[in-house]
Amino acid sequence: MIKENLEKIRATLPETVTLVAVSKTKPVSDLQEAYDASQRVFGENHALEMRDKHEVLPADIQWHFIGHLQTNKIKYITPFVTLIHSIDSANLLEAVNKEAAKHHRVVDCLLQFHIAQEETKFGLDMDEARQLLDSEAFKAMQNVCICGVMGMATFTDDEAEVRKEFKHLKEIFETLKKEYFADQPQFKEISMGMSEDYPIAIEEGATLVRVGSKIFGARNYNV
Ligand SMILES: *Cc1c(COP(=O)(O)O)cnc(C)c1O
User: How far apart are CA 35 and CA 58, in angstroms?
Assistant: First the structure.
């Protein structure tokens, strides 16, 4: 089933888009099944869960952290994480930089923006992002690399609203690119789109889509 789901989704993705298989709450056997169907990029939103899965699964998996990250949990993922999608404060970025330095790594990160109508979703606004990127503290960071932006649309059936929010994130990306990263080719990622809205996200310029339930089935949060 997982293999068939992956194949169906891959058939719809342009070559420029990377599929992040969101495997949070799913057992290692499900991830292995996806791996055997040649999936290499996985997304998790709990640091310890990601660390535990990383320890038992093949070493060539690229681990993307996609959830709210508490500073005291950074240490569990810094040795191996490929991309942190969810930088939502200057403090968090600074803490990642500090941990990454201990491991002599440069950790790739995305700035998460609040683009949805819901109050509950984490993320920066443009003023906060500018403040972060203008700060001396940021300019001194040697062990993080900002590679783009991430956002989550409102959970709604209103396709026009979702599309508007994705367009907004794309505009944020273009503005930051022009103002701060014009000569930096590594600033190229737009992480947007989940199971229900990734086709719209791709039309609006996503380079990374984060798809969970369409691959692994519905999650059971009671376990
Ligand atoms: C869980 C999650 C996803 C995947 O959600 P699905 O609807 O199952 O595809 C994507 N992004 C983030 C940040 C998530 O927490």
Answer: 9
Q: How far is the CA of 212 from the centre of ligand 1 (A)?
A: 6
What's the pLDDT tens digit per position in 119-145? 776 899 999 999 999 999 999 999 999
Residue 223 has pLDDT above 70, yes or no: no
Q: Find the CATH number of the domain harbouring 44.
A: 3.20.20.10
Domain total in the chain: 1
List beta partners, residue 182: none
222 found inside a domain: no
Residue 212 located in a structural domain: yes
> Is residue 70 scored above 70 in pLDDT?
yes
Q: Is 122 in the pocket of ligand 1 (CB under 6 A)?
A: no
Residue 71 belongs to domain spanning: 2-216
Instruction: Tell me which of 23, 30, 45 to substitute to probe ligand 1's pocket, judged by most ligand atoms within 8 Å of the beta carbon.
Output: 45
In a domain, 221, yes or no: no
Residue 19's pLDDT is what? 98
CA angle 175, 99, 47 (to 5 degrees): 85
**pTM exceeds cut of 0.90:** yes
Provide the 3-class DSSP secondary structure of residue 174.
helix
